[in-house]
Write a structure and sequence with these properties.
This protein is α+β, with helices and mostly antiparallel strands. It has helices spanning about 5-15, 45-55, 95-100, 140-150, 155-160, 165-175, 180; strands at about 20, 25, 35, 60-65, 65-80, 105-110, 115-120, 130-140, 195, 205-210, 220-225, 240. It has one domain (about 5-240): 3-methyladenine DNA Glycosylase, Chain A.
């Protein structure tokens, strides 16, 4: 059963476009009406291309009237059956079938018996590939994200960085799970999870090796917005303008 405090928090987040409080200062909240969904054609490409171009786009979580959103600042590309670090490396299975299906679908998996990770499928139907979301800059629904993450008190710039920095935190903040959110159409605003463009353009992209893997770890397939303070790991190695 939901508590009165949780209901009140959700109600406030429904109207967060008016204002939000950080460190005692009021700022205008992010306007989700600016976000236009990316079409399926965006994802019918190599994950390395999709990954780079997803930087700066907006990931939106829809749950009834409630919306949460964050700007994508860190991703990793996984290249399919030829990539030993990819879930699809072993071939098609019931668990990874989304990666072999149509592009633009959500692939959610449970890892270390502790947290979920969100990916989007790439390449044409029948060809495996995907992009893992590693970090977001929170934009909307921050109070609800904080409650979902167990963060209490007034949100500061430091605590704001704890909301969606890292793939597990990201999913926890937005309550993304495999049971509810696997194989969703991420090109549709009617979906529980979707991605759109609000016109933001990145200035510098940093490219590094992927984090937390042992197989195919040498490949530079992690892409981050170089100036973002919300990325989850190192920013060095190679820069691309």
């Amino acid at each position: 059963m939901r508590t009165r405090r949780a209901a009140a928090t959700d109600a406030r987040d429904c109207f967060e476009h008016n204002a939000n409080i950080f460190g005692g200062k009021t700022r205008k909240e992010y306007d989700l009406h600016r976000v236009r969904p990316l079409g399926v054609e965006f994802y019918v490409r190599d994950p390395r291309v999709v990954g780079r171009e997803l930087l700066g786009k907006v990931l939106v979580r829809r749950s009834g009237r409630l919306r949460m959103a964050g700007r994508i600042v860190e991703v990793e590309a996984y290249l399919g059956t030829d990539d030993a670090a990819a879930h699809s490396a072993a071939g098609l299975t019931p668990r990874n079938r989304v990666l072999f299906g149509p592009p633009g679908r959500s692939y959610v998996y449970f890892i270390y018996g502790n947290y979920y990770c969100l990916n989007v499928s790439c390449l044409p139907d029948g060809v495996a590939g995907g992009v893992l979301f590693r970090a977001l800059e929170p934009l909307a629904g921050l109070r609800t994200m904080a409650r979902n993450r167990g963060i209490s008190g007034e949100l500061t710039e430091r605590s704001k960085r704890l909301l969606t920095t890292g793939p597990g935190r990201l999913c926890e903040a937005m309550k993304i799970t495999r049971a509810k959110d696997n194989d969703l159409d991420m090109t549709s605003p009617k979906s529980g999870v979707w991605i759109g463009d609000d016109g933001y353009r990145t200035t510098r992209i940093a490219i590094t090796r992927r984090i937390g893997i042992t197989k195919s770890a040498e490949h530079p397939l992690r892409y981050i917005i170089a100036e973002s303070k919300f990325v989850s790991g190192p920013r060095t190695q190679r820069l691309s303008d």
